[in-house]
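RECORD TYPE: inverse folding
INPUT: structure tokens
STRUCTURE:
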């Protein structure tokens, strides 16, 4: 177990964190793309001696290894429960190095059948004080065929032959595809990418593609999932749901998950609810948050996302849950697990807190396992155990 805050943490705190303390300044999407360009170069050339040395040092600083963090879920080996959420590495540009950041898994995407530019810019905004973000990206990505090429370019092998690099792929509907053709759109992408993913996330909950959330209707969702399950070598399937559903809608989806033998649920996506920040002004546009389109993520979503995980777990504790939304500390990660999540994902919190958040969470979980005298993280799932200092 490594518990140190070294060079990469210091670089991030000195260079990046000051930028994140202000809404304005360097554009949020530009900063994301710049970071991804560096990661892409590193992932494509990780065998170069200098880059190899940097990545090895990164691994030593950020990776936490403890057998008590290991789980086998849906036949997949997860070395630890902390994953990178979909939305950051849409095109799999850094698929080859996410495990070196300490992640037990990474979710690539959202990918669509057709390449698409996404919505008009600006479309990603920092809410620095609240450690939150508003995005209306619109599934901007280079398409499923390009994602295959990126995997091959980086030497990301077939999932059945790949060790210590667990990848999920998040699939969405192309903007130009009508709802009536949505199933075919998803199936085309899945057929291309099934060989490369350990699990598939069916995204029917982004607020930024018109009409997409209608696919959360149990009738439409059942049609889609039944066809997905028919695919050859179909991987474990997780459905990603919105935080804005009523509990009745969530219960209907849970029943569908059980009836159709779907592997699990990812809860939740970004929220159309402004969560008490309706009058918060977006500095770049001059508009109030309740006047802006897009989904809210980060710390304001924490309570709501946790309540949904707890509700689903109480409905049926056999549904595998991946908890995402507002997780930005060891305490919030522990709470999500004890509410019922077998796995968790981070994104906005990871941006604000930096790469050190992953080992901080993992070391925090290990501390709680010790404090509660638990032999494996599975014993904590849905236990409602409190955080002990």
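DESIGNED SEQUENCE:
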């Amino acid at each position: 177990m490594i518990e140190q805050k070294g060079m990469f943490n210091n670089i991030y705190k000195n260079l990046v964190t000051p930028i994140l303390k202000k809404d304005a300044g360097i554009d949020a999407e530009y900063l994301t793309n710049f970071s991804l360009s560096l990661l892409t170069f590193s992932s494509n050339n990780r065998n170069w001696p200098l880059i190899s040395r940097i990545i090895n040092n990164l691994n030593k600083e950020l990776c936490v290894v403890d057998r008590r963090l290991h789980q086998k879920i849906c036949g997949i080996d997860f070395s630890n429960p902390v994953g990178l959420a979909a939305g950051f590495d849409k095109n799999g540009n850094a698929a080859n190095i996410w495990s070196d950041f300490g992640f037990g898994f990474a979710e690539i995407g959202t990918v669509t059948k057709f390449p698409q530019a996404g919505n008009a810019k600006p479309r990603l905004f920092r809410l620095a004080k609240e450690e939150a973000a508003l995005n209306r990206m619109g599934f901007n990505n280079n398409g499923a065929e390009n994602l295959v090429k990126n995997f091959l370019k980086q030497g990301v092998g077939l999932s059945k032959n790949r060790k210590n690099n667990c990848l999920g792929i998040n699939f969405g509907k192309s903007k130009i595809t009508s709802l009536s053709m949505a199933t075919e759109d998803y199936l085309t992408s899945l057929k291309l990418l099934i060989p490369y993913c350990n699990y598939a996330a069916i995204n029917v909950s982004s607020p930024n593609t018109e009409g997409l959330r209608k696919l959360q209707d149990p009738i439409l969702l059942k049609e889609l999932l039944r066809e997905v399950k028919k695919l050859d070598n179909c991987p474990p399937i997780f459905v990603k749901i919105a935080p804005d559903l009523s509990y009745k809608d969530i219960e209907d989806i849970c029943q569908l998950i059980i009836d159709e033998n779907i592997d699990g649920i990812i809860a939740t996506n970004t929220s159309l609810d402004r969560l008490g920040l309706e009058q918060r002004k977006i500095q770049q546009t001059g508009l109030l948050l309740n006047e802006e389109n897009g989904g809210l993520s980060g710390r304001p979503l924490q309570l709501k996302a946790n309540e949904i995980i707890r509700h689903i777990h109480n409905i049926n504790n056999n549904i595998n849950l991946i908890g995402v939304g507002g997780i930005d500390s060891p305490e919030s990660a522990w709470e999500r697990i004890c509410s019922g999540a077998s796995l968790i994902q981070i994104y906005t919190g990871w941006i604000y807190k930096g790469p050190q958040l992953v080992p901080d969470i993992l070391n925090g979980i290990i501390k709680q396992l010790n404090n509660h005298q638990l032999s494996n993280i599975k014993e904590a799932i849905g236990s409602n155990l409190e955080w002990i200092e």
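NOTES: The radius of gyration is 19 Å.
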